[in-house]
Every structure is written in C-alpha cells, then in structure tokens.
Amino acid sequence: MSYTQSPHLYDNEIEEFLKTAKIARICSHNKDGTIHAVPVWFDYDNGKIIIGTPKASRRARNIKHNNNVTVLIDEIGPPTRAAIIYGKASMDGEDMDKVAHSIFSRYMSEEEARGYWKGLSELTEWVKIIVEPIHIASFDYSKDTKYLDATKKYIS
Q1: Is residue 156 part of a domain?
Q2: Of 30, 46, 54, 120, which one has the fewest beta carbons inside 10 Å?
Q3: Within 10 A of 119 (CB to CB), how many other CB atoms are there?
Q4: What is the CATH number of the domain that holds 93?
Q5: pLDDT recorded at residue 156
Q6: Considering the domain boundaries, does residue 1 fall inside one?
Q7: Residue 57 structural domain
Q8: Where are the beta strands (DSSP E) in 33-125?
Q9: Would 57 be classed as within a structural domain?
Q10: What value does the CA radius of gyration of the chain take, rounded to a whole number of Å?
Q11: Tell me, what's the pLDDT at 79?
C-alpha cells in the first residue's frame, strides 16, 4: 500500500487562503538548536506575513540570532488545507498602532481592536515580525480523491 502527498493549492488559492485564515504558527530556532513554535494572530500584506510580538518575546530573541523561520497556516478539517511558508524574518517597531489595528481587526470589530491594542500596548514594547516567503509548500485534502474515498465511509 502506498500513498503520496495530497494535491497542492494553486497560487491564487494560496493568496485567498492567507487572506482569510485566522491562526498561524511561527517556528523559530532556539539557541540550543530546538524549534520554538507558537500560534499567533497575523496579517497577510503584499505577499508578506506580519505578526506583532513583544520585543522581549522568545520568537523576537530567536529571530535576532537566526532569521530563518517557518510559518504554518492551516485550517481544521477534515479535510485540511495548509500553507507552509519557509522564509526570512525581519523586525521593526515602526507603525505599531497601524500594524496592530490591521492584525486585530481581522479578529474583532474596529472599536474592539483599538481597545485591545490600547491595553496590550501598555504592557510592554512591541515589534512587528515581517516574514518574506522564500518558498511556500501547500496541501489541500479536499482535492484528494484517494483521501476522500478512504475517509468518507468512516465520517458523517
């Protein structure tokens, strides 16, 4: 018995998926070589993944010493779709009010986003992580007839 990878998302499907997906998992390299993975809210802007984070966070510290990151964006299935973004990350603290508003208003009303950011901005200094994709891998099990045939008889 053999089974290969499910079909991928096409470029236009990846673009739409990244504009509507809600949770990303950013993976960065700890100094000891292990991987730090954490779920985050994000925005997708001009082909880049934008993430707000406290300046002193583990992911920000990791990116300072190694800017290679992987970002996984998926949706709960079945069937599951996902984009795996391998890229380079940079950080800066510019326009954090605008960045936070852009991210938070994907998840809540404009008014709630402003209040949410006001509260968070009082806690600590924030920076944005900008992930520039180098390669994007993807899969879409909804296009996989072998997967669908194998599972449909077991789920309702």
Answers
A1: no
A2: 46
A3: 9
A4: 2.30.110.10
A5: 59
A6: no
A7: 11-150
A8: 35-40, 43-45, 48-54, 68-74, 81-92
A9: yes
A10: 17
A11: 76
- The answer to whether position 35 is within a domain reads yes
Report how far residue 88's alpha carbon sits from residue 90's, in angstroms, rounded to the nearest whole number.
7
Burial of 79 (0-12, 13-18, 19+ CB in 10 A): middle
Amino acid at 154: Y
Domains held by the chain: number: 1
- Tens digits of residue pLDDT in 96-130: 999 999 999 999 999 999 999 999 999 999 999 99
| Identity of the amino acid at 129 | I
At 144, list the tokens. Answer: 């996989």
Could you report the per-residue pLDDT of 50-93, keeping only the tens digit for each?
A: 999 999 999 999 999 999 999 999 988 777 899 999 999 999 99
Which whole-number Å values give the CA distances from 53 to 58, 76, 143, in the listed order? 9, 24, 35
